[in-house]
Amino acid sequence: MNPFKVGDIITGLPNKDYYGITTDAGTFRVLSANAEYLVIECLTHQRSEHAIGKKFNVEARYFQLVEIGELRGLAYQVKLQETLNNA
């Protein structure tokens, strides 16, 4: 069963680079969700800036919910907050 809902901010599970871009190096907003799959949009990415704004179809089991306070590095947190404010 999929634990995510539309609007959730998620990231890839640590050490689970099942997908090339949608990993724990990025944060993503859930655009749609069903029992097993998600459509997500890339909000921030530490290694692939070209991925920001792109949409991906992924399996929910490879992701976890992000708490803003858990993000690594102040600059990364600020960038995410700016992205969320402009959405």
**N-to-C order of helices and strands:** EEEEEH
Q: How are strands sequenced across the largest beta sheet?
A: 4-3-2-1-5
Query: Helix/strand-derived class?
Result: alpha+beta
The shape, in one word, is globular
How much of the residues is beta strand, in percent? 25-35%
Which regions contain 5 or more consecutive residues with pLDDT less than 50?
A: none
Number of strands: 5
Overall pLDDT: 84
Helix tally? Answer: 1
Query: In angstroms, what is the radius of gyration?
Result: 12 Å
> Percent of residues in helical segments?
10-25%
Biggest sheet architecture: 5 strands, antiparallel
Distance from N terminus to C terminus (CA atoms, Å) equals 28 Å
Number of domains: 1
Detailed description of the structure:
The chain has one domain (9-86). The model has no long low-confidence stretch (mean pLDDT 84). With 87 residues, the chain is α+β, with helices and mostly antiparallel strands. It has one helix and five strands, in the order E-E-E-E-E-H. The protein has a five-stranded antiparallel beta sheet with strand order 4-3-2-1-5.
Summarize this, please?
With 87 residues, the chain is α+β, with helices and mostly antiparallel strands. It is 15% helix and 33% strand.
Topology:
Elements: E1 9-12, E2 26-33, E3 37-45, E4 55-59, E5 63-65, H1 74-86
List keywords for this structure.
87 residues; alpha+beta; 5-stranded antiparallel beta sheet; 1 helix; 5 strands; globular
